[in-house]
Amino acid sequence: MTGVAARSVTPAALKAMLIDGKELALLDLREELIFSQGHLLHARSLPLSRLELRMERLVPRRATRIVLCDGDDGLAERAAAILARAGYSDVSILAGGVGGWGAAGYEIFSGVNVPSKAFGEFVEHDSGTPSIGAGELERMIRGGEDIVVLDSRPFDEYSRISIPTATNVPGAELVFRVHDLAPSPKTTVVVNCAGRTRSIIGAQSLINAGIPNKVVALRNGTMGWTLAGFQCDSGKNRRAGRPSPDGSAQASAAAARVAARFGVKTIDLATLDTWRAQAQARTLYLFDVRDPAEYEAGHVAGAISAPGGQLVQATDQYVGTLGARIVLVDDAAVRAVMTASWLLQMGWKDVAVLVATGTETGFPAAPVLGGAPSVDRALDAAGLAALMAHGAVTIVDLSLSRDYRRGHIPGAWFAIRARLAQALAKIPAAENLVLTSEDGVLAALAVPEARAAGYGHVRYLSGGNAAWKAGGHALSADDPRMADEAVDVWLKPYERASGVQDAMNEYLTWEVDLLERIRRDDSVSFHSNAPRR
């Protein structure tokens, strides 16, 4: 495809692709905030700015049928050229972009992680998942009732803001660890998250597993708690421990019931090896759904850390190819079985559990499409500091805007890589231009693009801002210099600088409204046979 224009597909042709059952990766190349304002339901947000950093894991098979979409502004053509050079052989572009899709009469969705969020609303409606409001929970806590509050988010989210008394038990860990946290069947179990989805899925997981306790979701999570006028905690570190032998036995029995109910299949290592050998013809995702600390200590070679609760909550961030084969790894089976049960209900047909341990340790670096960038234009932190001391350098930071605002090299400008040429035109030029980013990889990739924009003396900071800080140099949140709008990230309500409560109300309304909108899209195949309470 190199040097040849990518094929164009009409909205009607793409619609047919979405329901033909064959593998398909639908990738939206716009920046995340722009994506969140309107996109196709099954599109994966993959900004052109970071294409090389995420593509290998998101769409690993080079022969995958791929359709690119954008704002009909040339991003898809630029991405198609990059993918062609990397060996992707079946790439097309949506004619007219997202606007063309809407003009053809098809549904456009706002927000992020829409399939997973819509699925949460479907589960609550379909299963009748019970919930309680913030006022009722506050009265129960204040009255000393026999309850446990379990926060189903990752630990970093829980630590930032949590419900008083809550213990952190991320989604897929709930069935695995609940039996020791609520040993009496008389204890009421309340599951919360920040909003709705993980509260609903977490509570329904426990109900599906058949625990004898009364289980409810906290309606609207920490947002609902805040909007009700109650104070959230911050900086807490209550975490569920490893299950006791009895708790583990109960969890295994519960998972076996769920596996039977939802038809969760288990494979062995020999089958995995067979499927690996078929990976050039059939996309395979291998996810370790345990706690990240367990993954780091040892995992099956080639598995990617994808904690089960987050995999269900944001499936589109992990699985780029619709119709792919998914294997979930867990040495205790429970987390993988619970995660698989939800993926099957979401419409993923080829999901299997692998009960295994491995010897590969740590978190492998994400592969860079096309290989590691050249180091011939690298500059270390000491070299950059010397240039700064002589005032002979302009620094441009290509980190995500939220990270740039949190801390950047003093004097650095913020820019978005896919719009770098426009940003550079706004920045006073010095003798030397140095690009940086979180770890330097993105900055290295952008060096040829800066040179193409007319800058002859362009280098990048090796190791990026992390190396700058490790070298004893300070990062500063002061004096932000924005050479571009911060359209690269969609900010959660808690991350907004102002209007937080309005943003919370808007977000919660958006979630609830998804169920009706999803019913109008015939490419969705949610289903459930979950027990009701």
Derived from helix and strand composition plus strand pairing, the structural class reads alpha/beta
Work out the helicity level: 25-40%
Number of strand segments? 21
Radius of gyration: 24 Å
Give the termini distance in whole angstroms: 55 Å
Strand order of the largest sheet: 16-20-19-17-18-21
Molecular shape: globular
Average pLDDT metric: 96
Number of helices: 23
Strand content: 5-15%
Largest sheet: 6 strands, parallel
Question: Which regions contain 5 or more consecutive residues with pLDDT less than 50?
Answer: none
Describe this structure in words.
The chain is of the alpha/beta class. The longest helix has 19 residues, at 500-518. It is globular and about 70 Å long.
Briefly characterize the structure.
By secondary structure, the chain is of the alpha/beta class.
Topology:
Layout: E1 7-9, H1 11-18, E2 25-28, H2 32-36, E3 44-45, H3 51-58, E4 66-69, H4 75-85, E5 91-94, H5 97-103, H6 114-127, E6 131-132, H7 134-142, E7 147-151, H8 155-160, E8 167-168, H9 174-181, E9 188-192, H10 197-208, E10 215-218, H11 221-227, H12 245-262, E11 265-267, H13 269-277, E12 284-288, H14 292-297, E13 304-305, H15 308-313, H16 315-318, E14 325-329, H17 334-346, E15 351-354, E16 378-379, H18 381-389, E17 393-397, H19 401-406, E18 413-414, H20 420-424, E19 432-436, H21 441-452, E20 458-461, H22 464-470, E21 481-482, H23 500-518
Parallel strand pairs: 1-5, 2-3, 2-4, 4-5, 6-10, 7-8, 7-9, 9-10, 11-15, 12-13, 12-14, 14-15, 16-20, 17-18, 17-19, 18-21, 19-20
Helix pairs in contact: 6-10, 6-23, 9-12, 11-23, 12-17
